[in-house]
Amino acid sequence: MDNYLTIIRKYLKGDCSSEEKEWLKQWVNANEENKALFKKEIKESYAAKEHLEVDVEGAFERFVKGIQQKETKVISLKPVLRVIGYAAAVAAVVFGIYTYRSGNSSFEITTPEVVQAEDTSSDKIKIVQADGTISYLGLDDTASIKDAEGNLVVKKNEDQLVIQGENHSTKTEYLQISIPKGKLFQLALSDGTKVWLNAASALKFPRHFNPEDKNRLVYLEGEGFFDVVTNTKQPFIVRTGEVDVEVLGTQFNVSSYEDDATVKTTLVEGSVAISDPEQEDVRLKLTPNYQAIFSKNNKALERKKVDPALFTSWMHKKIILQNESFAEVYKRIERTYDVEITSLNQKLNNTRFTGEFDIENVEQILKVFSETIAFTYEIKDKKITINP
Fold it and tell me: Domain named Protein FecR C-terminal: which ranges (predicted)?
């Protein structure tokens, strides 16, 4: 067994094996000196991260609580031999422990004066104009959207919505576009910025960015990938219900679904600054291949190095898992396939997986999981129930 400093540092990086965690548990509990050394390493580890403060006692308590939980069984996913369309390529499973906490914080990006239109089709793109007018576009539709004066607002160009026209008013007019579950779509904003919206996501943005405004401000609910046109005089800001992401010109992904416990910002290119509007001293800068994770529960902001491809795979219609519990995974499956999943199988929920799926068929993905950990499920309309 490696020396205690090596094991502690591996734990803080999330690289500990189950045997190493058990050894660390026994070592920490051996005496007060070991416990103090462990807390010291926690403090020094967080101190090395810019702009972050650490609750040492809280971090220690999470360690104690975590290692007392029943460890997750290590398994291997079996690839399906007969598949519909693409093959489901699945890799080995990685050990881990997960505790799910649902975030209650959200924000409403629909303007108060908006009323529901008669057509409330759940499989169409919803467009809300500044005056409250609601329109729906099917993904195969070719129609364009106009305002009350007959001016072109949105033009559909194959798989992209292009925002049209200039705002001659001194007041910034916002549009809101919502993508249904099971769909992906791309927007081209008036400044040339491109946005890919994931399933069950919405973006509120100016129809035309006013050069007199200090920032180019947009509001995101759900998940989007942004390829921002550079304008050093007018930074681009993505506002979620929890954090602001400020950029000058870059490529990044923001995931901020209401039912997720965290907001994740992943930087592909350029640089961004993440901040909490409610806490002026909470600000974190990212460089490429790093991710900022904001906890909705304790308002903590942390950074870690990642492979951006894992967090932008949805743009290529893939689901990539990396040490994720099924309790985390099935929320993404729900959004991707426009289904509702109720899992009563705690053994499955607590098991972590690493693997990759080409997005083709929800039943095919469930078959992969069921051949790895035996379970049965029932499908009725869009509701899937996984039995204990």
Answer: 318-386
Pairing mode, strands 301-305 and 290-295: antiparallel
Confidence of residue 263 (pLDDT cuts 50, 70, 90): very high
Contact 171, 124 (CB under 8 A): no
Question: What is the rounded average pLDDT for all residues in the chain?
Answer: 76
Residue 268 and residue 247: Cα distance in Å, rounded? Answer: 12
This prediction's pTM: 0.66
CB 296 within 8 A of CB 206: no
* 292 and 167 assigned to the same domain: yes
Please report how the helices 32-47 and 56-68 are oriented relative to each other, as an axis angle in degrees rounded to 10: 120
Quote the Cα angle for 104-110-114, to 5°: 135
In three-state secondary structure terms, 172 is: coil
Alpha carbon 27 to its chain's center:
36
Residues of the domain holding 375: 69-101+310-388
Question: Which pLDDT value is given to residue 251?
Answer: 92
Please indicate, yes or no, whether residues 73 and 142 belong to a single structural domain of this protein.
no
Asked if residues 52 and 302 have their Cβ atoms less than 8 Å apart, the reply is yes
> d(Cα 265, Cα 256) in Å, to the nearest integer?
9
Give tens-digit pLDDT for 126-154.
999 888 889 888 877 777 788 887 778 88
Q: Are residues 83 and 49 in the same domain?
A: no
